[in-house]
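User: Before I run my own analysis I want an independent prediction to cross-check against. Here's the chain; please return only the structure tokens and, at the end, one sentence I can use as a sanity check.
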Amino acid sequence: MATAINKYKSLYLWMLIPMIFMQLGIFKDYWGDFSDNAWSVHIHYWTGTIWYLYLILQPYYATHGQISRHRTNGIIGMFIAGGVCLTALSMMNRDIVTTEKALALPERFGPFQQWFFFGVAAVEIVMMTAFAFAIIKSIIHRKDIENHAWWLITTVFLIMMPALGRGIQGVYIGIHMKEWPNINIMTPIYYTQILIIGMLLLGAWKYEKLKHPATWLAVGVNLFIFLLEPLGRSEAMQTFLKALIKG
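Assistant: Structure tokens:
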């Protein structure tokens, strides 16, 4: 156990990296129109941010002689994790509503056509299901530091795409604004996924978890996001999502 604790002694510092990427990605989208955001957006943003903070604080407590505090905060953390998952799922009706707006106001949405928002909804279901699974696995393995820690760490890479993707997409659109509305909005999403998978694999290599099932899950989910466009354009998927997600 002492060896495992020493192995993760600097983990809290490394976890600052995905936190910074997430905040930079979502900064303009969230803070740029802060007062106009819906209540559900605020709740999801803050539960997600607090979860990221927990993934910095908890490794610190566990490896710096504060096990009692780590365990107490761990119970609270599971509550926060549930909030992240449920608030994300509860916001999905907004994606369906946005598809209708994109159809009614094409000049306003430009390259963001209906299919994009259907695709986002489709991949978010998979992302949040995987997130919930990883949290449950971390609870099951709570007495096994190696497994417990890595299942929790990978949750960061399971839910990073929406925040980071918006940021990179915003920069990409800004660079290509003269081409509006003929901008390929999927290109920055692909860049985002490559970046996330790269960070995940770098972390897995550092902590010797390249063959861990949590790593495979996170890689698989992020590869699945490459299917956002064909999923979003599928009429069968659109029909399924509209039937599943109702306001």
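Sanity check: Residues 114-140 form the longest helix (27 residues).
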